[in-house]
TrEMBL record:
UniProt protein name: NAD(P)H nitroreductase
Xref: InterPro entries: Nitroreductase-like, Nitroreductase/BluB
Gene3D superfamilies per the UniProt record, alphabetical: NADH Oxidase
Region spans: Disordered: 197-221, 312-335
Membrane-spanning ranges: none
Recorded coiled-coil stretches: none
PANTHER family: NAD(P)H NITROREDUCTASE RV3131-RELATED, NADPH NITROREDUCTASE
Molecular-function annotations in GO: oxidoreductase activity
Length: 335
């Protein structure tokens, strides 16, 4: 692949900067936005920003890295939709845990209709914690969503009974453990509806005013928000385990890319998505999920898919950090 060399047109730098800005719109655990980009003539580097890490709930950085993987996929999609062919070196510097990926572009390439469609969904995609409607998700849609994850190297395992019963118990147990841990409770209070850093975290209008009616409980934030949930019940929702063969940093990064891909595909198909990460945070409940996979891989996230009510008001978007906080110009500092 002929990579663009230093000294060529400034539109390369602008393309990298724009891709990094688009990456900043990706989903992240508690909307912590734990990424940092360096954009220069020779490439675009993605790093983890440990200042926005959740050390109590996510001590290994699993969810941080998944979040950064979603940002990486968003950035790749921005480049592809703009007519560039991105080449990605993941975890390109073993000397630093923070250096996650390095993106370069080759010559211009005509964007596919699929890339353009998914790129347009980036600003529409959102997290909806309300119940889904009592209509089944079409099987064709589920197949396309699953394929989107597979195209990014991750599996999506649909859960049926009795696994759903076990998932419900595990999710409730994870909520109990999280709320009982004073350090984790303080961490969550900081990022959700509380004194979170400006333009980060989950605002109160994205948190349900009361626990929604659903067979599998979502995260219990420990306090109500202001998001109305209506009277529906998410009985028709479909739950999937996003998994990879291993449970290391590269698996987490690739899972984040798959999360972005299948979420954007779901949005394109009119399917609402709710990630459930609390059951991943607790080792005991994560082991329950691992057994559901029967040795095929390691669970990295639970995703709920369902159809949103046509009369539901849109969920307000979560705030985003200004570009200058997450995108910096090259040259790239050494670890």
């Amino acid at each position: 692949m002929n990579q663009v060399q230093t000294g060529q047109s400034d539109d390369i730098v602008q393309a990298y900067q724009h891709a990094a800005e688009v990456g900043g719109r990706a989903p992240s655990v508690h909307n912590t936005q734990p990424w940092l980009w360096y954009a220069g003539r020779t490439g675009l580097e993605l790093r983890a920003d440990r200042s926005r890490h959740l050390p109590t709930a996510d001590p290994d950085g699993r969810l941080l890295t998944i979040s950064c993987g979603a940002a990486l996929h968003h950035a790749r999609l921005a480049l592809s939709a703009a007519g560039w062919a991105p080449h990605v070196a993941r975890l390109h510097d073993p000397r630093s845990d923070d250096r996650l990926a390095w993106i370069t572009v080759a010559e211009h390439a005509a964007p596919s209709a699929q890339d353009r469609r998914l790129f347009e969904e980036i600003d529409i995609r959102h997290t909806d914690r309300r119940p889904t409607v009592e209509l089944p998700v079409p099987a064709e849609a589920l197949a396309l969503i699953r394929q989107a994850a597979a195209d990014e190297g991750a599996g999506l395992h649909w859960l049926g009974q009795p696994d759903l019963d076990d998932l419900a118990v595990a999710a409730a147990r994870a909520n109990e453990i999280g709320l009982a841990d004073l350090d984790q409770r303080a961490e969550m209070d900081y990022w959700v509806g509380g004194r979170r850093p400006a333009r980060t975290g989950v605002p109160s209008d994205a948190v349900p005013e009361r626990a929604p009616q659903t067979d599998v409980p979502g995260r219990d934030f420990g306090h109500p928000g202001t998001l109305g949930v209506g009277e529906g019940h998410a009985r028709s929702a479909v739950y999937g385990l996003l998994y990879r063969p291993g449970d290391g940093p590269e698996d987490w990064l690739r899972a984040g890319e798959a999360l972005s891909a299948c979420w954007l595909k779901a949005t394109d198909l009119g399917v609402a998505v709710l990630p459930l990460s609390s059951v991943i945070e607790v080792p005991a409940t994560r082991e329950v999920l691992r057994r559901m996979l029967s040795g095929v891989g390691h669970p990295l996230l639970v995703l709920r898919f369902g159809l949103a009510g046509p009369d539901q008001a849109p969920v307000p978007g979560t705030p985003r950090l200004p570009t200058e906080r997450v995108v910096r110009p090259g040259p790239f500092p050494q670890p």
